């Protein structure tokens, strides 16, 4: 899963936030005058665009996006706003939405017939993305959503990553950002308060988890907070580092900590008593739930004809197919074709579990290295950015998924973040497939290639559709077997475990949000139909509840890519080239599935009828 949220439709998420785009956190201020023409990312905004009107629109849109999301701008190497955060006020949010609507109207009014083929595709993708964003506003998630994975505290906790402190100027910029954090927490309180007045409120279990998370952090000295890595990781001389640590501790202790406490108290004392209880966890329990979920289904599948009922049925059919594979491989590996016996063995056999956090991390590194050596035989275009393994931080690990991917930034390569918390619950059988999904040939390969595409405008390189990103990640899990990356049937049972996981998501996500399932129903279904560990199931169900529809992207995208490949192989026969197929799939960024369909069809036609 890619971990990126906000404007991008992808993402950051095994599953997600995801390369997607600006974190939905706090600052919209004017850029320093005279700097716009010297910002490389603004030139990238119009790369490959030949039509002057379209280029002007994309440049203005990208500049506005960087202003709205300063932290994202910093991560892309645009340092005009390093001391700012996104303005969290309702007024700024409405102004941004109005501005986006204006950009959409301009793009729609452009004369498509006057554009060349490349510009027509760029215009279509631009309109598509803005349209999905606009449709999603019906959900008004800022008024009710509370998540242990995405909240003001977890967002603030990685401030140190995109702007490492290497100069006094950067130290001052980071201190300014930290000083702006209380406004973020207070704006969140204000937004959730409006939701409470209108009957829009989060589910109780997720609120309880966030309260527990914040209780744990408030019990610590602020110097132990992840936020304090701004100082501990700083590359300054001794005096500069000491001063930064002192200034940072003062700001966090006197300003940020009270804001965190206010947020915790508000959740505990106001939101939790009114929160949705058992049986009302899904969107179906909210007044806007039906309209919201319909928009989510469209957004995360990118298929206009997709419906919750159709996705629900597709998930059940996929599980039947996967269970048949489980019985076949389980017979070879464990000597039984009894599905529940296979699941129990995978869940409970001590030898199939890790023992230490170091083992979990080392396995991730070993699998990544193995994949790096294999990819030249399967891909023509390879990424320049490197991928490394890091642990999910302690404040987040108990409440989040088993892993996620963080895309390359201006001063950082791609990072495969692995959850090492309670290693005795981490299955060895899933270690390989997890690594290949999150790093290579999965998220890192796809996202790094997209960001490095030449002559492609910035929004297509750094934004994209979740169905493509996560569909590619899931496709990569089976591809890794073709590449010879799995050691045997235990690893293949891990592949089937993950495949069943994603198929069950179609059923559970639609069950929760369209059919009124309870959390208990969702967890029971996953226990009965997948061998996932109980702690993983609990965290995953919370994720589906707090991020409606996103779970639909994985299987939907994978099925599309597999179908396109099967058709290409059948149509082209001996002329089919797996490297060329992968390059055409990855060659335009994370496009919608209908656009991908057309690209592959055009490639098949060109391959069958090469130019004289």
Structure description:
By secondary structure, the protein is an all-alpha fold. The protein has a domain at 142-287. It is 60% helix and 2% strand. The chain has helices at 40-44, 52-68, 70-75, 90-109, 117-136, 152-156, 159-162, 168-197, 204-218, 229-232, 238-274, 289-301, 308-334, 339-348, 357-374, 431-438, 443-451, 458-462, 466-482, 489-514, 519-529, 534-546, 553-572, 578-586, 593-608; strands at residues 387-391, 403-406, 414-418. A three-stranded mixed beta sheet has the order 1-3-2, with helices on one face. A hairpin with a 7-residue loop joins strand 2 and strand 3 (414-418). The longest helix is centred in the middle third of the chain and has 37 residues, at 238-274. It is globular. It starts with 39 loop residues before the first helix and ends with a helix. 51% of the residues are buried. The model is unreliable at 3-37 (pLDDT under 50).
